[in-house]
Amino acid sequence: MAYPEPLEQLIASFERFPGVGRRTAERLAFHVLREPSARELAGAIERALRETRLCRECCNVARSSPCELCADPKRDSTLICVVEQPKDVEAIERARVFRGRYHVLMGALNPAEGSEGEQLFVAPLVERVARGGVAEVILATDPDAEGEATARLVLEALAVLEQPVRVTRMARGLPAGSAIEYLHRGVFEDALEGRIELRLTRRPAPGA
Ligand SMILES: [Zn+2]
What is the pTM of this model? Predict the structure, then answer.
C-alpha cells in the first residue's frame, strides 16, 4: 500500500539528505509526524533558510553577506585560512590565534566514497585569490586522510593561477587523525607558527 502523498513527499525529502536511504527516511518521517516539536522544527528550518546565507567571500553560513569576519576591516585580508566546516572557523576564532580571513569548503574530499570534490567550494576560493590581494593561503583542513586529500585538491586548484600564491599547511603539533574543531589554543599557535610551505607546480588552466 502506498503512503498518503504528503507523507511520500516528506520521505522523499529526507531521502535527499546525505547518507539517508529509503528506510531511514521512512523512520525519520514517521518520527516527525509523532513528534510534538515538529512544527517548531519546521519553523526553525524555515527561519534558518530565510535569515542565513552563504557569505559571498568566504562561503561560511552567516546572517549577512559579506559576513562579519569578511567585513571587518581590522582583519588581515592578505591571509586566508582554508577550513572544512563552519565549526572549524569557530574553533580557530575561540583560540584567538589568527587575525586573517577564512574560506569554508563545506566538507572534505572522501576518497573512499569516490567523490572528486565537485561539491566543495574550491572554485570560489580560486576566484577570490585570482582577484588579487592575497599573500598566503593557509590550508587548515583536518590532519586525517580526508583532510590531506582535500588540501592536495585545493593546492592543485590554486596551481592554475597566473600569479602564484604562497600556500602553506598548518603542521607542527597537529595530532594525526585529529579534528581542527577539537584543538586548543597552544596547538593552533604551534601549528600556525610551524606551517610549512607547499610547492605549487604550475599547470595550464583547463582549456588554455
Ligand atoms: Zn565571509
Answer: 0.81
